[in-house]
Design a protein that fits this description.
Layout: H1 2-9, E1 21-28, H2 43-55, E2 59-68, H3 73-90, E3 94-103, H4 105-110, E4 115-118, E5 123-125, H5 137-142, H6 167-192, H7 200-203, E6 208-210, H8 211-216, E7 222-223, H9 226-234, E8 239-244, H10 249-254, H11 259-276
Parallel strand pairs: 1-2, 1-8, 2-3, 3-4, 3-5, 4-7
Antiparallel strand pairs: 5-6
Helix pairs in contact: 2-3
């Protein structure tokens, strides 16, 4: 039957080509957030969505739509590499699109695309590494609290917030951050190649940029509305299918009603807000 159908209707395809399809995968939230509700983005949480997106053989492209202020560098890299792997395996090109923010680990996700576009008001870049904490040694002394810690290993208590910071610990951690930053820069250079323009000390300073400035530095390829970009490239009749990577998590599955979803959403908002605050958002 399939052979007969092909013989009957095959010639008509020249006059009535199939409708082009583009699958959009939404990656939203902080990266590597560990919480009982399964919030945030991680390599495991987005796996099913990515596999589903690349299964569609009719795809002209897969778009990774990003709205993330960053997070864990390891999870960011794993997600990015998984997208690249699926793209090569299925021979489907990838376009990255940044909505509100694609910064730090969020920008690392965008490196999965052969091209990167963004909304004109999007924040991009922040190619750097940050770690922050507090020192509580004076507070517990004033409170009269006796802390008891037992370790095996002379360096097990590096950067302990209840002890004064040591020079050797500060140097150790600074070296770790510098090496992580170096690896991040190498990833950007490998992905963007000679599209990086201007002073690299600006692009790789850890600063964040409005999309137009990011484009001037070569961090992205252009700005605009995603649907307009896709229609311009694939035709006005392009079919856009969207897949969300968000999941309700175990908490949402085990409890009924809206209360669990409200708790999950509120906690996610706090996680995202803490990261977004770095960009004044």
């Amino acid at each position: 039957m399939s052979r007969l159908t092909s013989l009957l209707f095959g010639p008509l395809r020249r006059f009535f080509p199939p409708t082009p399809v583009v699958t959009v995968v939404e990656l939203r939230g902080a990266i590597g957030v560990s919480a009982p509700g399964g919030r945030g983005l991680s390599a495991s949480s987005v796996e099913a969505s990515l596999v589903k997106a690349f299964k569609n053989k009719k795809n002209k492209a897969v778009v990774i739509s990003i709205n993330s202020p960053g997070g864990a560098p390891a999870q960011s890299r794993m997600i990015m590499e998984r997208i690249r792997s699926l793209s090569l395996e299925k021979q489907i090109p990838v376009i990255s699109y940044i909505e509100d923010v694609g910064a730090s680990g969020g920008y690392m996700l965008a490196l999965a695309g052969e091209e990167i576009f963004a909304d004109p008001f999007a924040i991009v870049g922040s190619i750097g590494v940050i770690s922050a904490g507090f020192g509580f040694q004076d507070l517990i002394a004033k409170a009269g609290v006796e802390r008891r810690v037992h370790t095996a290993g002379t360096n097990k208590m590096r950067l302990d917030p209840f002890q004064p910071e040591k020079d050797e610990d500060r140097e150790k951690f600074s070296a770790l951050l510098a090496e992580t930053h170096k690896l991040f820069i190498e990833m950007v250079k490998k992905s963007r190649g000679d599209r990086i323009k201007g002073d690299p000390d600006v692009a790789f300073s850890g600063d964040f940029f409005l999309a137009s400035e990011g484009e001037a530095l070569g961090l992205i390829d252009g700005t605009g509305d995603l649907r307009a970009i896709l229609k311009d490239r694939y035709g006005l009749d392009v079919k856009i299918e969207t897949i969300s990577s968000q999941r309700s998590g175990l908490l949402g599955r085990l409890t009924s009603g809206a209360s669990a979803a409200m708790v999950d959403a509120a906690a996610q908002h706090v996680d995202d807000k803490a990261l977004r605050s770095r960009f004044g958002l």
